[in-house]
Amino acid sequence: MKQIKNDSPENCFLKYAFPCANTLLCNNQITKKEFKELQKDVLEGKIVHRERLLKLFPAAFRRISEVADKINKCVWDSEVIRHYFIDEHNEYIDRGEGNYKNFPKTFRNFCKVYKAEIVKKEGRFLSVKYNSMKREVLADLVPEAEKGDVVTIHQGYAVEKIE
Q1: DSSP the chain
Q2: What is the pLDDT along the chain (163 residues), one digit of tens a residue?
């Protein structure tokens, strides 16, 4: 499946990583101010400096670096970032890598990235289905998404439309 919108690597990364920011906030790894700044940046499509992203999400970049090395590409390549989140992120979770080993199975499943079909759109919320599951996610990152579209979802957000 192909991603529709062509974002910078920084924007691509932040859209996929931002849903994890709430977990970082709850674990006191970022401040409420940092969370609000990230939220504003991702919603406005602002390009965040790579150094800031590396500092805030070091585990993700360690894993993305492993993926980039495997496919012989630069870490700051949107294709590599998407490949990590869509194709390999869930495997890291299943292996209990890092903090994932401390989370209950339900939360680990919530942390995974899925491809889902939109079955209903109501304001800022999308009802999506994937596998045999159905749940609600925020449409904030893909306000143009409509019923019948396929999106990637990460935690409580639809991240991007794919075809």
Answers
A1: --BSS---HHHHHHHHHHHHHHHHHHTTSS-HHHHHHHHHHHHHTPPPPHHHHHHH-HHHHHHHHHHHHHHT--SS-HHHHHIIIIIIHHHHHHTTTGGGGGS-HHHHHHHSEEEEEEEEEETTEEEEEETTEEEEEE-TT-TT--TT-EEEEETTEEEEEE-
A2: 334 455 799 999 999 999 999 889 988 999 999 999 999 999 999 999 999 999 999 999 999 999 999 999 999 999 999 999 999 999 999 998 888 888 889 999 999 999 999 999 999 999 999 999 999 999 999 999 999 999 999 999 999 999 8
